[in-house]
Amino acid sequence: MAWYDEDSWATAAFAPKGSTIAITFLLAVLLPILLHQFIYRKATPTTLPSFLLIGPSGAGKTAFLTLTERKVVAQTHTSTAPLAVELLLPEGHTPQSSHYRSPGDPAYERSRQFQLNDTPGHGKLRHFATTQLANPTNVRGIIFVVDAAAVAEEAGLNETAEYLHDVLLALQKRYTGATSSKGPKEIPVLVAANKMDLFTALPPHLVAQQLEKAISEVRKSRAKGLKDSGPALGGEDDSLDEDREWLGEGGEGSFEFAQMEEVGTTVTVQGGNVIGGDGVDVKSWYEWIAAQL
Amino acid sequence: MLDTFEILTTSGVVLWSRRYSPVGPHVINSLIRDVFIEERVPLHQDDAGSKPAYRKEGYTLKWTTAKDLGLIFVAVYQSLVHMTWIDKLLDNIRALFVGLYGEQLSSKHGSVLNCDKFAPYFERQIQDLEGQSDSGFSAPGTKLTPPSSTDNESADESVPTVPLQKLQKPLYDTSADSTPVPTPDTSRPSTPAQSHLLAGKAGPGGKLSRRNKKKFAASSAPVSSGDEASVKRKGKGSAKKNRVWGDFGAEEDDPSVVLDYSQSDLGDEAPEGEALAEINPESWGSRTGKGQFVLKDLDMEMDQIIAEQNAKKEAPASAASGGGLVGSSLGAIGGLFRNVVGGKTLTEEDLAKPLKGMEDHLLKKNVAREAAVRLCDSVKRDLVGLKTSSFTTVEATIRTSMEKALAKILTPTSSLDLLREIQTVNAAGRPYVLSIVGVNGVGKSTNLSKIAFFLLQNHHRVLIAAADTFRSGAVEQLRVHVRNLQELSKREGGQVDLFEKGYGKDAANIAADAVAHAAKTDFNVVLIDTAGRRHNDQRLMSSLEKFGKLAKPDKILMVGEALVGSDSVAQARNFNQSFGPGRGLDGFVISKCDTVGDMVGTLVSMVHATGIPVVFLGVGQHYADLRGLNVESVCRLLMS
């Protein structure tokens, strides 16, 4: 039986038969559905505005995240992996963009959503944070959590200042390295001085002062320090180090957070405590988040 | 007794925990830091079956992980107590938890997991295992019961001596026959707030108070119906137990009943437990039946989940071995396809060959065998059970994972800013003392003068102490260096001098004198050169301990050459241990990096052996050829 015979499949496929029509119809209806199922099986990536939680280990990043997520602080330990959680801005805070929306508006609910990205703070695991910093697609702001009690001591202050210096330098590089004339979108930084409930904690303005002073020191010793081994090991000539960049106004004088505004980064310092005997106080941080949304 | 059991995620959130006595969070934090992040503690396994243990402040921690879900299960108990069933408990709990909440965990996007209902499962596991260990091989020390109590017959005789403990024991025994369990124990967990209150009850102390309660209860009036019901239920449920106790006399029976009531009274008065609420409205007889049913159900469910999880684990192995010719070839094609497209779940067999290749590659880069094996192991641990992401081959996945492992091992935990440290020490009013040790001919003096040059550029006043009193020409060599450095630093404003006492003197005393001299004459940094010594010569190495004690260096750096091969591990280890307990090396200077090209494996080997960071690299012959470590570039070189 050849394909051109009267009862072959080719003839049947083009004949006005009931079964052929039914198959064609089914195919026409089901194919797009199947294709859709296959291609859009994974949910489209959400483009929620996200905030990055950065800071040295033990500052209270994960605790803040759990507090925002479930209204109570869960017990936490040292993180070894990042965590991203989609959240709603707590009641009583209105996002900046929807001040004039009525509460019943569905867009209002949507504008209250945001994503919080927790990163491990241990020295060996900061690459999670730095990779996110290098390519901040949706990052609306960075919350740098600081242990206000640890900052009162030399060792804690140095560690915090060095980390903050690196974060700010990465932000500055992103601004100065931008190719468009307009410059990249601003990424503000909130220095969240946590653990205000502790007796030894410094008040927020002192935290800011100490950090500014310590960052100046870090910058100074970085300037004097040894060069990186990178080019030398790669066999390149490392006599040129023009591409080194200094935080703040060319690395001169003492560093102030206000200097960062020039490169599109506003630094705010707010106090709060995630855990505490007399209740939790993180209102000022939520206000800051609301202002960025 | 178990102190704490916690189930936490790798992102640091505690999902479920049960504490019997307070254990500071820093204990588990240090476990995570030392074992999971820094991998500092060698995971020595006594035998294949047992899990590694980590000791901290009198506690022993045992743990297990569920890699794909990012879960860590930690059990904390006092090191004094020998607990044989912890491994089994960890395995069972993992199987249970993954079985019950695995889907929820992998599907959801957040840190919240409602696992209040997990408590009864946990309690049952504890009871089962405790009971097994007691009746099975009468583990000494797990309980304070005499060995005679292991079976019911002997229990009969020994009743009068320890009646109360005996009461608990048969209960556990009968529980193995899936007859009911004391209500208070099962109803307790359903009220989380209550568990804290009752935390102390589980230990031997609990028994003591129970005894008191008994005394009190014996004289007190009868109790309310609801509570009595729960008590009665227990008495009826375990018929075996009744028989045992009948011998002793009715008197003993009653107080025990009341005693248990008193405990449940304490626990369940205010917040009524689920189990109790369920039972209350029913009559006595069916109550027993009901209780039995509920508990049996839990038991069966538990066993089923554990069996399921175990079967799942064994499934891939059996599937690989089984299957006809067609099945295996189809699987091979599918595997190849998966390998290209991604989405393949990695097993140990998949990884074995590429990992071998990776190990050879590392060995070619002059990484010591030991370090290479460890790196490959950590990559394997990282990857087994994971799915490759789309369009990546197994090799590529291993590569990225290895890069990550290398970066992790090389990245220092704390800051290595020498200048700031000098500042801090000088602020305290004493000179900063840095000493250099190492094997012969690795470049100790050369690197010392490089560091001196670096410090002079930063306007420090440096005193170089010639504590190599052994090798001829060592002092003269330093004198030449100092003269050169004086010439070089004249314009810069730094100041440098040599402190020497000739040959043959005791190095430790010279070093101590140099520090005292520096403090007097206003030098703010002292650099001490030492004689080179073979790291496996005990006689030479023993003098280092005295040196460390007398000179009290703020920083001890060891110089190692990049040229050295697998000996680097032993060198680093021996030098690190030579300063006596409580003192070790603070960092490495890797010299002659310019002579090895991309074979910089020595860096990894040394850091692997000790967990101490690399501070400086020597990359040339000039004073200025000293560099800080750039982790990324080293990783790039090693992986190229």
UniProtKB/TrEMBL annotation, chain A:
Any one cellular component term from GO for this entry?
endoplasmic reticulum membrane
Q: Report how it sits in the membrane.
A: Single-pass membrane protein
The UniProt annotation puts the region (Disordered) at 222-247
Where in the cell is the protein located? Endoplasmic reticulum membrane
Task: Locate the transmembrane regions by residue number.
Answer: 20-40
List compositional bias (Acidic residues) regions by residue number: 235-244
Any one GO MF annotation of this record: hydrolase activity
Recorded hits in InterPro entries, A to Z, give: P-loop_NTPase, SRP_receptor_beta_su
Reading the lineage from the top rank, the first entry is Eukaryota
Q: Name one Pfam family in it.
A: SRPRB
User: What keywords were assigned to this record?
Assistant: Endoplasmic reticulum, GTP-binding, Hydrolase, Membrane, Nucleotide-binding, Receptor, Transmembrane, Transmembrane helix
Give the family from UniProt: Belongs to the SRP receptor beta subunit family.
Put simply, this protein is called Signal recognition particle receptor subunit beta
Source species = Paraphaeosphaeria sporulosa
TrEMBL record, chain B:
Subcellular location(s) per record: Endoplasmic reticulum membrane
Identify the stretch(es) annotated as Disordered: 132-254
Q: Which UniProt keywords apply?
A: Endoplasmic reticulum, GTP-binding, Hydrolase, Membrane, Nucleotide-binding, Receptor
Q: Which PANTHER family match?
A: SIGNAL RECOGNITION PARTICLE RECEPTOR SUBUNIT ALPHA
What is the designated name of this protein?
Signal recognition particle receptor subunit alpha homolog
Q: What SMART domains does this protein map onto?
A: AAA, SRP54, SRP54_N
Complex and partners: Heterodimer of an alpha and a beta chain.
Q: Where is the composition biased (Polar residues)?
A: 175-194
Membrane topology, as annotated, equals: Peripheral membrane protein
Q: What is its main location?
A: endoplasmic reticulum
Annotated source species:
Paraphaeosphaeria sporulosa
